[in-house]
Each structure stands twice: as C-alpha cells, then as structure tokens.
Hints:
3-stranded antiparallel β-sheet, 5 strands, 2 helices, alpha+beta, elongated
Amino acid sequence: MPSPAVTETAEATPTPTIEEEVSEAYLRYWDVYSEGLFDLETSRNHVSFTVVKPDGRRREVGGHHIRLYTLREMRGALDAAELTYEAVHGGFEGETYGIGTRRMIIVAHKPA
C-alpha cells in the first residue's frame, strides 16, 4: 500500500518581541550585561542592558531609570504627609541601614 503524500508548507516565522527575545536569552544562557550611570544632579540611576548572543552579536535591550531618595528626603516627605518617623532598616529582616545597603525600609505611623 503506498504511503500518503506528504506536503510541506513554509510558514513565515514572526519576529520575536524584545521581551520574548530577552526571556529566551535567559533560557539559552545568553550573556546579559548591565551598565549603570548615577546622575548626581538629578539623583537618578540610569541602567541599560546589552544581550550578547552565542554567535557574538550584541543587542541593546533597553533599561530603566530610577529616582533614588536620601533618608533626609524621605523624612521630609513623611513630615509633609504628617506621618511620624520611627526607624529605618537596610533590609526586610531589620538589617542595619548604611551606605552599603541596597534597600531603605522606613517604618512610620500616623499619629493618633
């Protein structure tokens, strides 16, 4: 009995979005590099990302801009909101807050 004819169809491969490509990069262990620049005048941290594919091709994939606040600025905002400052921690487990900590966790309350 003869086998049925097999036909192949060529389908266009859609171009992946940048989000899909970055997600795929992590799955395929592409190298992802970040570069940061802190602007002292605006207190903004500008970070950009570059993906390097296994064949050496590089692609800029965006980044983010974050406004960083000092403890003094945050205490001023608490005062303006009529909240009472209680403490500051360097992490969610109550770590000591200091120049090298990655987080500023502020505890405040609304007066009775």
